[in-house]
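The aim of this short unit is practical: by the end, you should be able to scan a pair of folded records and say something sensible about each. We start with the first protein, listed as its amino acid sequence and then its structure tokens.
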Amino acid sequence: MGDQVLELFPHPGQRRDLKNLYLDQLASLPEDGPPFIYSNYIASLDGRIALPAADRHSHQVPPAIANDRDWRLFQELAAQADLLITSGRYFRQAADAETQSELPVGQAREFDDLRAWRRDQGLRPQPDIAVFSASLDIPLQTLEHYRDRRLFLITGKQADSDKLAELTGDGRMEHIACGDGAAVDASGLKRHLQALAYRRVYAIAGPSVLHTLVSGNALDRLYHTTAHCLLGGKEFDTFVWGEALQPAVALPLLAMYLDTEAPPGCGQTMAVYGR
């Protein structure tokens, strides 16, 4: 993949290779200090990240905005993580065969270089997994595929004790209590993850998890691809969902790139926001 994108900020006019565009950005982060938590979304111009699937049982990334070039960047971010944050919803969708793919890093040949990069960096073949859940509705059989990874269940202290025992009783998942209620309070999340020696944490869950991270002051960086098209629709997901954030959370622009090649006929901008 030798195609290039145009840098718009902070060095406008420079051409950059799409391949390893995001790999270069996180590789230089300092190793000391608390974990660095980052997330990534692709959305349409009208803010849609997902629309109802054909069976209307779930929401999925619309084909009009999904593209291999953005997917490459998604995988580059995953390649640098030692822990992924996802949600119970992912495993419920997996039980119904509705998920787009297995949790990264992808096994396709096109990502051989990313898996090799992990080996060169001394990372495990795949990132470990932390699952945010308040309902604890996680089909047990969906966890079997990830037995080679360390699995964490992150809840509030008031999570249902019977369901908790069912999910953690045989050691398949380790429990982290983060917050005094049933749901996760991310304000103490970094402290827990730092004690477990995690450094780069990639949140690939939906809008409720992102809201939890943002409201808990735990998100350090947001990668946001905007496909230059309008989707409309009355049922949709946007990339953060929850109570209004008061005050508004500032995420200054760190970088922006223009990709005219995808999606076909409209192109996309890739923006990096954070602190």
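Turning to the second protein, read its sequence before its tokens, just as you did above.
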Amino acid sequence: MRREFHFVFGLRPQREPFHLLHWLALESCRRTQAPDTIVFHCRHRPWGPWWERIAPHLDVREVGVAPRGFDPSRYGATDEGRLIAGAGYDYAHEADFLRLEILFAAGGAYADIDTLFVERYPDAWFGNDCVLGEEPAIAGASGVLVPSLCNAVILARPGAPFLRRWTDEARASFDGTWNAHSCAAAARLWARHPDEVHVLPRQVFYRHAATRAGIASLFTELDVGLAGVKSLHLWAHLWWSATRVDFTTFHAEQVTPEWITRGASTVAAVARRFLPADVLADAIARNEAAAPPG
């Protein structure tokens, strides 16, 4: 199977320039994965200097109508759904359905745009019908922890049986809550059809959990235990806005070339090797100029 990587972005109008972190997702994919193609699926085209740097390396394809099964009317059925819709996170659910449709039709690898690639995904993974990574267990309805398979990275063959089942399950179970149709659905199907999906341990894609400690270990601490890590999922929706402080006070405006160049956190240390030479040199010079004397 071709090493074709798919990303989904711009399902809503783009009011801000393409962010450095999103450029890093695509550039780190390009530099570590040696992809045959990077397919960038968008409805509203990005803009800005970081987009101009990466666009020549992408196969940009327009996203049309919303995928079948994504029904925004279902947000009104639960408190969680109403909260998600009110916060404007419905685009993430549309992307949940789109990634399944894209991979079922084309195959390859899908990754969220807040993925930072660390090492090459082995060619052998592309020989499986479907590959997913385990994330930390989540509490079920009874409060007991149950397995969860995150959908932020998916590798699959075109027409993979697990993707067909997952798509059907997602359309039936989508209720506006965060992951009943996505990660939780994948885990339910894994229990029933374990021979249709190859599951990788948490370390490979999701070493750092979607918790305060996990976010800190990505952005304010330096984790040296990255052996076996192939990519980092950054959980951007938990910290992107400066007004969201329940997980961290770190936010997207702090992700700058200067911050990356200092290399004082896990993400910065990994990202530094992908910065263009001119950007890296300028950032080092600005850091040196801003350093206190002595």
